[in-house]
Please model this.
Amino acid sequence: MTTHMEEHRLRDAPLSMEADEFKALGHQLVDQIAELLASVRSRPVTPPNLSSTAIRDVFDLDTTLPEHGTPAGALLTQTARQLFECSLFNAHPRFFGYITAPPAPIGILGDFLASALNANVGIWTLAPAATEIEGQTVRWIAEFIGFPAGDGLLVSGGNAANINCFIAARAAAADWDIRREGVGASRGRQLVAYASKEAHTWIQKAADICGLGTNAIRWIETNADLQMDGAALRRAVDADVAAGHLPFLVAGTAGSVSTGVVDRLDDIAALCREKGIWFHVDGAYGGFVAALPDAAPELRALRGADSIAVDPHKWLYSPLEAGCALVRDADALTRTFAYHPPYYRMDERVVNYVEHGPQNSRGFRALKVWLSLKQVGAAGFRQMIADDMRLARALADFVDEHPELELMTQALSITTFRYVPADLSGRQGDAAVDQYLNELNQKLLDDLQGGGEIFVSNAVVGGRYALRACIVNFHTTASDVEAVPHIVVRQGRTLDLRIRPLGLRRE
Ligand SMILES: *Cc1c(COP(=O)(O)O)cnc(C)c1O
Model:
């Protein structure tokens, strides 16, 4: 009896923690996080004077690996406090940078729960419930945007989702065993892919990783609306076919990262059907907008794609990381990624996600997405996405009304604009003025980001440097948006007084 009891005593493992201690630490941490979330609005978006040196100082990051440990409670509490002092808050209502969303609170808790289970969602047997929940999450995402997905999986983000689809398109297009023989066995025919000049840099990484090289990308000109030019795309495809190359993928963009422009996905779909080319849509940013009843027809045409990348960690407000790759053909992913090594005994009647993408061990990233889809439903997400877009259009109106701001673009939830001092607005076109306005706005961006009142990022539109506000943020309100022009103009005036070159001074 005694020996039996002894066998059940905790092993002396330094990482193990008694249940009571875990509870106490967990409660303390949840309290700290809840207080942070409640106080974000009253904090700067980014703390002032944040530098690499300052951060290394706060966390003592220049020390060598400690030989011995530190008590967990104090460590966690202090680390949380330090992180709160040194972080940019994308949960701040005035965070408008890049395309980075605030975390859904239920997603934060979902990640905590997922890591407690630590399911390895590569193989069904290791993660039965997690695998089935990921399946439903993927089906729901496809259903939300109206895409008839045959298969799909969650990955780390938009890049990974796009690359996953790119590799599947490459495998589908080759009339030789490209997985075994590689691209070198193409008998001189080059696999080529097409995207607009506004496309995201994922496609360069994809072409490089796949051994095609970035020269295999045809960068198609854009029209006046910054959409891929359909006639130029057709000419490029025809020229490649005539040269004996193998066009294998056209990537349309549903919401470009700079300005939110949506390509004519309907026209691209038609051309791809005609030419027998895989039609991929990069919907990392704007794909979810297809769920809105009033979505533009050219955006809804993503439903005709062979594959789509969407990003739950953008417009589904999932905590990082969560991207999603969707493919029409139910076998496309397994034909691309499955191998059957002797050390796996996999049940072929269930999904084993190792066979659907490049990852092997995989986390339960579906849980946070699934929980938020269940918490608010499709209607909840449609409402938040539509509200974000409405606020971005309101911002464009405020900008347009302000005599010292120039509205440059507005699409989906991205508004680009710049500060133009009143006396210079009539002098655009003069090379010195144009150069100064670019420089002024570039420096203004630094001042705005450092100032902590709002966080915007930048775009270059037709060679002109723009400030860029992207609203993928369910905390942002109308008054937050209304404040933006005032803050930009106030900081712009101060900066202009400081840096305007002599030659451009007011008379
Ligand atoms: C954000 C984005 C990507 C990259 O997605 P990550 O989640 O950052 O990997 C690719 N394409 C577009 C259009 C995007 O907006």
